Amino acid sequence: MAIQVYNTLTRKMEEFEPLHGNRVNMFVCGVTPYDYTHLGHAKTYIAFDTIAKYLRYRGYSVFYIQNVTDVDDHLINRSKETGESEAELAEKFFKLFIEDMTALGMDSVNLYAYATEHVPEIVEQIEGLIKKGYAYESNGSVYFEVGKFSEFGKLSKQVLEKLRPGARVEVDENKRNPEDFALWKAEKPGEPTWDSPWGKGRPGWHIEDTAIAMAYFGEQYDIHGGATELIFPHHESEVAQAEALTGKKPFVKYWLHTGVLNVKGEKMSKSLNNFWRVQEALEEYEPDVLRFFLVNAHYRSPVDYTDEVLEEAKQGYERLVETVQNVRFALKMQAKDERTSEDDEVDKAVKEVMQKFEESMDNDFNTREAISHLFTFSTKVNAALSKGLTRESLEGVLKAYRTIGDVLGLFKKGIEKEDVVDGLMEFLVEMREKAREEKNFEVSDEIRDRLAKIGILLEDTKDGPRWKKR
Ligand SMILES: [Zn+2]
């Protein structure tokens, strides 16, 4: 069965068939690096990171581009406030964005494409649109004449006439019609500028994405992603620019949009000042817990952020990690030699969870459902562990967690071999045992207490002492 995706363009679930066989070209609206990344941004980027990872898991060769809007009003205004140049601000905040997202496990992007490095392509597209009669120059700026593109509104399902009175459009006396949008903005004092056939100026926001995408993907490509609030006017304008220029439809075959992260019913955003920086969240929670919180929802669903749901996510994720650690421990200390019916049961559960994982992910990347299968699987694994399993079955279980974890970006810590730490811990546990045998309780207690201080618990089980991270 092919993957089914929900396409915003058709408002339908569709079978996923890339334009060029196995190759998938994917573009996601990137950041405007003028401030810190918050959890609302992270929700979108982690969703698309997971989607890219799953497509690769299913054998597609994905080329994933994120643009970097390193020239725009936000950056210019911020630069006026702080005295740092736009380029300095963009460099600083882009670096921080990458740090935050890397911590959360985003590693699927092939290319970060800077707007300022694609000005020639942008100028060329604008010239093409003027030549075809879709755009006009006015006092050094260039505008796209929305009324000329009859299909404007087909992505966001808006009717042009309704956009006109009091719509969210920039007031600008240079425009012929209020709904027209800027492709090129004429120079204003103190702003960064580039040369163009219309004099010095800078690119508009929407044209940046079409120019970058076409530079790498050609006139049509497979997936364009972004947050829901970008559908209009940003993505709608992209469709208009690209299809007006090339005449090829659709510009993008599948449009995917992520639901917002809400705080008390309102979107987490800079403007509402209700945001939580990823950096701050990382001080309180393990990166894996934050990632789990974000992927434990379907990407299209809005998520309500509260301290309680994050705490619940933490507990849920810890239950899964504990199972993984139980399996690792059993592999080291308790693997049985003889197969029993428990092994058969667990082998069956492994096959089942892999199949259900794929079914859920094939169904428009339903990570929430996939994770629910993982909980069911973990319950079965824990029950079987108490009766003992062979090495073969234990390795099968671990492989399932690793495979699913790689796609969802989870369990890195629980599964990866921590050889040095394991070795040191084994040594300390042995030293403590030895001290206890010699009735040197001062030393054995000190070892236990010192480990507790750094968050490591020693437990005495029927199979001997074992340790775990709190
Ligand atoms: Zn964009």
What key attributes describe this structure?
single chain, 470 residues, alpha/beta, Rossmann fold, 5-stranded parallel β-sheet, 4-stranded antiparallel β-sheet, 16% strand, elongated, binds zinc ion
Describe the overall structure.
The chain is α/β, with parallel strands linked by helices. The chain has 3 domains: 222 residues, Rossmann fold, CATH 3.40.50; 103 residues; 51 residues, no CATH class. It contains 16 helices and 16 strands. The strands form 5 sheets. It has a 5-stranded parallel sheet, sandwiched between helices. Strands 6-7-8-9 form a 4-stranded antiparallel sheet. The model has no long low-confidence stretch (mean pLDDT 93).
Strand content: 15-25%
Q: Unreliable segments (pLDDT under 50, ≥5 consecutive)?
A: none
Radius of gyration equals: 27 Å
Q: What is the helix tally?
A: 16
Number of domains: 3
**Euclidean distance between termini CA atoms:** 42 Å
CATH-assigned homologous superfamily of the largest domain:
HUPs
Strand order of the largest sheet: 5-4-3-10-11
- CATH architecture descriptor name of the largest domain: 3-Layer(aba) Sandwich
Morphology: elongated
Question: What fold name goes in the CATH topology slot of the largest domain?
Answer: Rossmann fold
Taking all residues together, what is the mean pLDDT?
93
